[in-house]
Write a structure and sequence with these properties.
Chain lengths: 114, 113
Amino acid sequence: AQSVTQLGSHVSVSEGALVLLRCNYSSSVPPYLFWYVQYPNQGLQLLLKYTTGATLVKGINGFEAEFKKSETSFHLTKPSAHMSDAAEYFCAVSPYYGNNRLAFGKGNQVVVIP
Amino acid sequence: DVKVTQSSRYLVKRTGEKVFLECVQDMDHENMFWYRQDPGLGLRLIYFSYDVKMKEKGDIPEGYSVSREKKERFSLILESASTNQTSMYLCASSQPPGDQPQHFGDGTRLSIL
């Protein structure tokens, strides 16, 4: 069984500061990992994903994440927060076989302070 | 661009009613999913389907059923709506295998009075 832990339901960050959202997963098989973003009154959009290969993955809107197998982590970062980054962020894990059923974390609501 | 369309953005129904939520995708995806989203609980999978007329229970199937008669359409049915089913419902679609992302609709905010 797979599961995802995202700590801190609400995260406040100052405009221009580093955004760091932590994601730890448990999976009995090598996983595929995803970060999604949800803006108010919208569905989820894919930010980035890790499948195989390079462990540092770049996504849209200046976000990136690093897969660390030894730490079972896939933390999301952005060097400089923008007001438009205010949204909810979800980490998700999928097994490398099967029908890509995802297990989601509970999400981080990011507030950007001017 | 993949388009997943949910039939209603907002819906208000009464306790005991039979409720249908419809979802259509335009990318010929094999897999379709229904989630509910509640504050502090993230997304929880209700049902998913990996082929026409095929379905599997997710983590919280109680009180729900689904129908997939055509590849592009996946319906969620609340047989007898209850107030604890008030929630945001999200539909998604994807292609196998597991490295392919899911594509989401904008959601239906359902209120049961």
